[in-house]
Amino acid sequence: MPTTFRLSLLTALIGATLLTGCSKSGTDDNIVKIGSASPLTGPQAHLGKDNENGARLAVDEINAAGLTLDGKKVQIDLIAEDDQADPKAATTVAQKLVDEGIVGVIGHLNSGATIPASKIYFDAGIPQISPSATAIAYTASGFNTAYRVMTNDKQQGSALAEYAISQLGAKRIAIVDDRTAYGQGLADEFERAAKAAGADVVAREYTTDKSTDFMAILTSIKSHDPQVVFFAGMDPQAAPMIKQMKQLGVNAQFLGGDGMQTPKFIDLAGADAEGAIASNPGLPLAKMPGGEAFKQKFNARFGEIQNYSPYAYDAVYVMVEAMKRAKSSDPVKYLAELPKTDYQGVTGHIRFDSKGDLTGGAVTLYQVKAGQWQPLQTINSK
């Protein structure tokens, strides 16, 4: 090949590369990448997809309305990743999202995934807003990148204990948790508050977030004759647990947290779900400021709301509003605006304390009646 031809070809290739690079860079300048991390496979996939869909609804609305930052029109790209509700997978997902150039993340769903991932986001300076992680340890880390838009386990555990003792008259309580950061944290707070109110915790048992056979621990619990069995875990375990309680003749009120307060719990437990009581941070959907409008939009596009999608939706808007105030999607710039959040969302008025926790807030108790979760009482957090 003649030297002049080789040089001409090399020049052309370099020019093409530079043009391609400039074109890609120009496109990327107009794209704001936000991550969404939750379990999209496995037994909790229905909850993870619910979170992703809530975030996606908000992103699509913002893009349709048009978003301008410092005079430049930008488009949000939501990048959804599957953390499998697993702490190790969550750190892999977090690093992948950081490497892909996200400027913020909505997630993770589970506290056990959120907590280890939060270190990676903090090290990268990436703001993180969880719609559903309630463990106290998440915001106790001191990471200035960590926020959440729902009440934490201290608030929820106290409300559950108060209800069990003042409304159910429980004096003898058995507790089971799934050993996840969420389950153990919620159970610890419930136990602390129950004991402080004078209840006797007659049994404390443990399982995992993969188990479905609870006959051994329930047989042990039955021998203590509790009035309430409190389970801190998710619906794939709560449903078989209540079914097995009925099979063994454990005559106690089944009580749980937000992990079991889902339509899926009723689907899985069937008739045995009747009478179960569970809490959920926040107001009932029908009483949320934007609850009915959100429900109509979400149902029309994605179907039934499982649990946390309204919070994922609000989390996106809180993040984008901070970008608007900063006039930038640069994490360094808009992170400084997140503590100033004062936003009226679908779920309620969102403001953060110095740790990144939601201030105020409420916890609502529900009971399964005629195959549906019905609100019983809303307790304002202290």
TrEMBL record:
<dbReference type="InterPro" id="IPR000709">
    <property type="entry name" value="Leu_Ile_Val-bd"/>
</dbReference>
<dbReference type="InterPro" id="IPR028082">
    <property type="entry name" value="Peripla_BP_I"/>
</dbReference>
<dbReference type="Pfam" id="PF13458">
    <property type="entry name" value="Peripla_BP_6"/>
</dbReference>
<comment type="similarity">
    <text>Belongs to the leucine-binding protein family.</text>
</comment>
<keyword id="KW-0813">Transport</keyword>
<keyword id="KW-0732">Signal</keyword>
<dbReference type="InterPro" id="IPR028081">
    <property type="entry name" value="Leu-bd"/>
</dbReference>
<keyword id="KW-0029">Amino-acid transport</keyword>
<dbReference type="GO" id="GO:0006865">
    <property type="term" value="P:amino acid transport"/>
</dbReference>
<protein>
    <submittedName>
        <fullName>Branched chain amino acid ABC transporter substrate-binding protein</fullName>
    </submittedName>
</protein>
<feature type="domain" description="Leucine-binding protein">
    <location>
        <begin position="32"/>
        <end position="371"/>
    </location>
</feature>
